[in-house]
Amino acid sequence: MEKVQKQILHIDVNNAFLSWTAIDRLAQGEKIDIREIEAVIGGDETKRSGIVLAKSMKAKTKGVCTGETLYQARLKCPNLQVFKGDYKSYKKHSNDLYNLLLQYTDKIERFSIDECFLDMTHYLGNEELLSKAYEISKRVKKELGFTVNIGVAHNKLLAKMASDFTKPDRVHTLYEEEIPTKMWVLPVSELLMIGKKTLPKLYNLKIKTIGDLAKQDKSFLIKKFGKHGLMMWEYSNGIDNSEVNYLEEKPKGIGNSVTLPSDIAEKEKIEKVLLSLAEQVSYRLRKYNMYANVVNVSLRTKDFKDFSHQKKLICATANTKDIYEVAKELLNEMYKNGTFIRLVGLRVDKLVDKNEMQLSLFSNEKNEKQEKIDKVVDSLKDKYGYNFVTRAGKLHSEEVIKLKDI
DNA sequence: TCTGGGGTCCTAGGACCC
DNA sequence: TCTGGGGTCCTAGGACCC
Questions:
Q1: Is it true that the peptide bond before A168 is cis, omega within 30 degrees of 0?
Q2: Which nucleotides of strand B lie under 7 Å from a protein CB?
Q3: Are residues A223 and A263 in the same domain?
Q4: CATH number for position A333
Q5: How does pLDDT run across A81-123, given as a tens digit for each residue?
Q6: Which of A26, A246, A273, A283 would staple A107 via disulfide (CB 3.0–4.6 Å)?
Q7: Pair A388, A270 in one domain
Q8: What is the CATH number of the domain that holds A65?
Q9: Which of A32, A64, A87 is the last residue of a domain?
Q10: Do A194 and A283 fall within a single domain?
Q11: Rounded to an integer, what distance in angstroms lies between the CA atom of residue A76 and that of residue A69?
């Protein structure tokens, strides 16, 4: 059976957070379009999260990079203007884009808040596909007020690589025959899944461009890098057979973490943070109607050393209390008193659907009571806002760590 | 006023079983 | 005695993505 060639688009919003904040500000009557000045969307330095989340073209020209500290960015760009992000607004703009794209196909994979893959295989031939890409590009700009880059190709990898070519507001193709001229000439760091740990290893092997990587012996790369080596070889040669995953997927794990206002070195205070996180994580878990089989606590020390411990549960749970109790056990195992901690994280993994669980097998009166308590607390949170309801344990502590609204 | 927060997937070693 | 070896589960840590 001959395989039908897939037709894929990758849509990538240009400077998403910055563009969307620019639109919101203009809508509120602000005169200056922050896309036209040296500006970034940044975290909060007073909360020790002062990093660049998105940058304008002008800030980029000055060398400002996503992920660097605002302090570093200001050194490169002294007139830099910093604006706060608004996740709720971003979600809305992202949905607007999604709804527009639904007019072309319902096979859309939302890869992140500002990126989508579209399976357009029902459009016949490259010409038709390309003209649809231009149509989408124009319509998004006109109807939604921001620009996108669109990658046009026959698989997801090549579409994503293509959308990353020159920006902003561009449509690029990357068909198989264009790989040598458009992709192999690029530095190997541009290839998807080549990060900052792999890059120096490739440089040591005199592999500098994606083309250099593509010409390597496949088995040599597998011997050197294992599975990752095979993937690098396939990607550099434009091979990717993955499907556009358009069905709504349930999460495999749910986690929250918080950088503390200042480093702390007392277990009791870390426990209070864990209680807040347990509430947050289990609340989200219950919203998905899922149970967790693994609880994981992670810590970051003041000198940025990360470590974590995890534990498989005897019985899956979505109770705040159950998760909190296990989290405390894990903290006890791993925490050495006196160590200064910067970040505390709690996540649950190996999630299962509530409906797919054989209930009552292990459930008892105590569990049912806990579930009822959580249910009441959840509905109050839904009604009056997440931070409205607080646990008694937290109310009586002087160290209340207020978590951001979710 | 130096370094976020949310994820997924992979690896390697130890325990344990047959 | 000369110390198998495959398979699975669990855990800690790491790499990468946006």
A1: yes
A2: 1-12
A3: no
A4: 3.30.1490.100
A5: 999 999 999 999 999 999 999 999 999 999 999 999 999 999 8
A6: A246
A7: yes
A8: 3.40.1170.60
A9: A87
A10: no
A11: 11
pTM score over 0.90 = yes
Whether A76 maps to a domain, the answer reads yes
Per-residue confidence at A147, pLDDT binned at 50, 70, 90? very high
**Which residues, other chains included, contact A318 with Cβ-Cβ below 8 Å and sequence gap of 6+?**
A282, A285, A286, A290, A291, A292, A354, A371, A374
Domain of A213, CATH number, reads 1.10.150.20
Both A78 and A26 in a single domain? yes
Q: What is the pLDDT of residues A293-325, one digit of tens each?
A: 999 999 999 999 999 999 999 999 999 999 999
Q: Is residue A395 over pLDDT 90?
A: no
- Strand C lies under 7 A from the Cβ of residue A197: yes
Q: Are residues A228 and A309 in the same domain?
A: no
User: In terms of domains, do A222 and A261 share one?
Assistant: no
**Closest nucleotide to A284, Cα to C1':** B6
The count of domains in chain A is 3
Q: Which residues of A are catalytic?
A: 115
Q: With CA atoms as reference, report the closest residue to A346 among A399, A282, A404.
A: A282
The answer to whether A270 CB sits below 7 Å from nucleic acid chain C is no
Determine the nucleotide nearest to A45 by Cα–C1' distance: B1
Q: Give the residue numbers spanning the domain of A206.
A: 184-236
Burial class (CB in 10 A: 0-12, 13-18, 19+), A19: buried
E-strand stretches of A107-182: 108-112, 115-119, 148-153, 171-173
A351 CA to C8 C1' in angstroms comes to 20
pLDDT in tens, A350-373: 999 998 876 555 556 778 888 888
- How far CA A133 is from CA of A109, A122, A123, A137, in Å, comes to 16, 14, 11, 6
Q: Which nucleotide is nearest to A197 (CA to C1')?
A: C15
CA of A382 to C1' of B17 (A): 48
Token duo for residue A312: 């498989």
What is the CA A390 to C1' C15 distance in angstroms? 37
Separation of CA A19 and C1' B5 in angstroms?
21
Residues A364 and A283 in one domain: yes
Instruction: Give the three-state DSSP class for A294.
Output: strand
Which residue, counting CA atoms, is nearest to the C1' of nucleotide C11? A310
| Strand C proximal residues, A:143-162, Cβ < 7 Å | 160
The answer to whether residue A246 is domain-embedded is no
